[in-house]
Amino acid sequence: MKSVLPLLLIGFFLHSASTDTHSLKYFYTAVSGDVHFPEFTIVGLVDGVQFMYYDSDMKRVVPKTEWIKEKEGADYWESQTQIATGEQLSFKNNIQIAKERFNQTKSTGVHTYQNMYGCEWDDETGETNGFDQYGYDGKDFLSLDLKNMRYISTAQQALISVQRWNGDRALLENDRQYYTQICTEWLKKYVQYGKSSLERTVSPEVSVLQKGSSSPVECRATGFYPKEVMMSWQKDGQDLNEDVELAETLPNEDGTFQKSSRLTVSTKELAEHQYSCVVDHKSLPERIVKTWDAADNTSIIIGIVVAVIVLVAVIAGVGLFMRKKSKSGPNYGKTSTADSDSDNSGTPVQNA
């Protein structure tokens, strides 16, 4: 993948959850232009763990966890593959329309069209929530206001789609049912499938490092599960909020997570004060406090392999600009068939 393609863990797709909240999220990505990356991908995650994947190169949906392999058979994966290949064909048309909306038809650069949607469920309170967010070229485009059951946007190019979607009461009702009921039902089912894996706890390994005398001091926590973790800094035992840069939590290849935080202070400050990184996680009996010590620092920075899951998406098959589908299915709930049964993701196409 060429560097011109932005890292697709972009801010408007990040949707935080508490430690008691489970989440089901789907990310669609379409890419146009000269880029070494599949033109269309789908990634599905439960509680931040990837459990399914599709791309336009291999042309099939595949399981990514043992628990989904054990619980769903060949028919399930075949039906989802048929849906995904249909989405891929439709998206080719939609990316061209997006470029027209933005006056980019003569552009030879790389363009991305993205959608993230799904739901959350708090197994302590029973509270649920749904979300549907869209982006073009790494910027917010439009999103669903579930409380008021309408789509909203500040982008001029999205107003046509917003008006048409909001004017389709059947579509909005279908969306309401999907995000408040159907999506949650499938989330609960998937959580039950992977309960032993999803509810495990793994403690983080924490290190405090500095590449050079003038570089920021970096605190790294890796290998932890579940995803939620708290990282902070202290100066002489007091909480420190200034000169701190906290990175997003990223997945590791083994299903655990990693996170880092950078502290930028002068060499003089480092020598005169005690700086400590504080990490708190569900797996820990008490929080970890790791104090910076120049004598312990090595010149070799420990490498952490980042499995950057491409969390980007498109609205399948019908696209953000041309038309929008209703959602009702177990997976990404978007298909070009007229079947509306929730067990096979069937939904009718809604024209823009």
UniProtKB/TrEMBL annotation:
- GO BP annotations listed: immune response
Annotated region Disordered: where?
Answer: 326-352
Q: Which PROSITE patterns has this protein been placed in?
A: IG_LIKE, IG_MHC
Q: Which Pfam families match?
A: C1-set (PF07654), MHC_I (PF00129)
Instruction: Indicate the segments forming the Ig-like domain, all copies.
Output: 204-289
The protein here is known as Patr class I histocompatibility antigen, B-1 alpha chain
Query: What CDD domains does the database record attribute to this sequence?
Result: IgC1_MHC_I_alpha3
In terms of superkingdom, the source organism counts as Eukaryota
Give me the segments passing through the membrane. 300-322
Family note:
Belongs to the MHC class I family.
Which regions are flagged for Polar residues bias? 333-352
